[in-house]
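protien #1 (seq + structre)
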Amino acid sequence: MTMIDSPSLGAPSTGSARPGGRRARAGRAVTYTLVTALALAIAVPVAWVLTASLKAKSEFFGSPWTLPEALRWENYVDAFTDAHLGSYFLTSVLVTVLGLVFVLAVSVPAAYVIARYDFPGKGAVETALLAGLFVNVNYIVVPIFLMLVDWDKALVDAFPDGFFLDNPTVLSLVYAATSIPFTIYLLTAYFRSIPVEYEDAAALDGASRFRIMTTIMLPMARPAVTTVILFNFLAYWNDFIISLTLLPGEGKTVQVGLLNLFTAQKAAADYGRLYAGMVIVIVPVLLVYALIQKRLIEGMASGGVKG
């Protein structure tokens, strides 16, 4: 009898595997190409600004892609001292840090209460917070300014020079107030995703609600907290319109100070100092983003709940 060998059931067909493999390789190639193009689109302008910040004034009249003949670090010194970017930088740091402290101090307890407790008017509060997500703060900066002007007029006897306007602390409060809806919305959603069994176990051990929130829920919500810190930091640091309106005096933020430097350099044409000011503005954002992104990924990897 003739034996006919049947093909192995476990061996994949070579002809059917090749098209899928080719499509996968083509998809990876397209992905790598797009990611590389996006990275270059971000890295090349940053590198160009960094290079231009080290050039002398005369070098800007040649090719813009040439490397500096000598590293002129004095451009940064001039930007910090002569252009007052040093004081503007400190004002931005103060306003940003205070804004983050204020928004987290209000949003974390509020989000925890909304996520875990039932109280009269809870639906209305959530609806109001959700509606606040669609309010662009740039559209209400003029009413905020007029409100602060009226408050200063009411307190003119106690504060002749004014209190609410040209006050970095008040500016940080405005930043925090305008970012509360987004912060509470994101933290509430994350708190609700955490199983309640963790809180029940802590309550059986005698932990108070405040201790449960601070020592159990808050560490478990680290990915969400890191996310809101990142987004709010970028919003506060890069803000221009609100700080320009509410800080009309000398205590400006670095974004407004950079505009003043740009306006002044139109006549002097000292572009090296101008680009040095841009680097001073960019570097803190890049550093904070890199640090927060690393912690965010670590928190998301370790923050899962095992069943």
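ok now protien #2
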Amino acid sequence: MSPDQQASLVQQTADIALGIDAGGTQTRWALANKDEQILASGTAAGLTALQIDKPEGREAVHQIFASLAAATGSHGQVSSIRAGITGFGGDSQTLPEMLAECFDLQKQHILVSNDIEIAYLDIFKPGTGYLIYAGTGSIAAYIDADGEFHRAGGRGYLLDDAGGGFWIAREAISKLWRAEDENPGQWKNSEMAIRIFKLIGGNDWNISRDFIYHRSRGEIGKLALAVASAAYSDPVAMSILQNAGKELARLGMAMCARFGSKPIALSGRVQELHPAIVESLRQNLAPEISLRQSTCQAHFSAARLAARHLKNLP
């Protein structure tokens, strides 16, 4: 056996740690060794903990986990998993059990939490700041010095998630069809409406209805891209984005009211949609509150957290 082959064999049999950051639009994963060095990373389809409530959802999640096991298997033996999954409330063992099955791993080597906890720890040390995370949904998070997790928002798209991608898309489609109620054909004068109808396949109500009520929230959330691209020429689109920033600021100020003024970090893909969102957020925060934008690499953070568990293995 050549030296290269020996090195490859050692790599494939070495214990490695897997970090998972799963959201409604995309799942990101990363692998780390015992020294917390990142070995590999990739993406998979999005998923949320809410999917396990239905048989078809459980099957979809299981398929994603199985694909992750196949993708990571060539890098070594996954012996520790830390997963952050949107919508996970800590009251179900279904997701840990699925991961244990797909990776042939005992459950004590798997830790599942909501995705925002891992994102917070990627940016702040406990007790030092607030994270506003806006992706498909929205939430503000704070982990205090004692390690207790606190939240504002993040109640899901049926109740709130204001300022997130789904909310932006829903607001746009709602305003679009309200305008059609009052003046049929008005969509032809709206850059936002033209772009949305192009993405969903037409301007007929039946097409909109089918899209809204049968597509995933991640797919619907992607329509926020159409709102952002129309904002400079469509005042309705611009107003939606500005209101999104205002809603995100509300989350941060709620945390400040409860735990005192601390720095705020904004993370998640919504901040990349349009500058108006961040500008509005800043304007609606108290002047003494500092705000910085952060590109969260939560899957890397999760992998490094999982790697610490490797050090305790025999």
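The chain has two domains: 3-113+298-310, 123-283.
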